Amino acid sequence: MSWGFLELKFQMRGVKIVSSFKRIEMLFISQLDIDDDALKDFSQLKRLYKLILSDTHLTDKGVGLLVNNKKIEHLGLDGTIITDKSIQNLISFPNLKSLNVERTAITKYGYEYLKENLPNVLVLGTEI
Question: In sequence order, which residues have a C-beta less than 8 Å from that of residue 82 and are 6 or more positions away?
Fold first, then answer.
C-alpha cells in the first residue's frame, strides 16, 4: 500500500501505526497529545518532506530528533513549546523551504536569527 498523503487524528498509540507506512510524504498532526518520543518513530519516514506538528507537546529535544530527516522541506512547529535552544537544529535542515514557529517560545532575537540564517526559507513567526 502506498500512501503519499495521510492526515489522521490519533493519540500516541497511533504513532507507531503511522510510522509503519514508510511511503508517507506529508504528515499533519495538530492539537494532539503527542510528545518528543513520537518523533523517534517519525525519523524512520525517509520520504517525509512535509511535517506539521501544530499545537503539540514538542520540545527542543524533539526538534533535535528530527534533524536526521534530511528530506524535510516544510516544517510547521507553530503552537509548540520550542525555544531558542532549537535554532541551531532548525538551521541545519538542508532542504528546508518553509518553517512556521508562530506561537512558540522563540524570542524576537531567535526569530531574526532564523530569518538571517535561512535566507531562502519562508520563516513564519511572531514578530514582536
Answer: 58, 59, 60, 62, 63, 101, 104, 105, 106
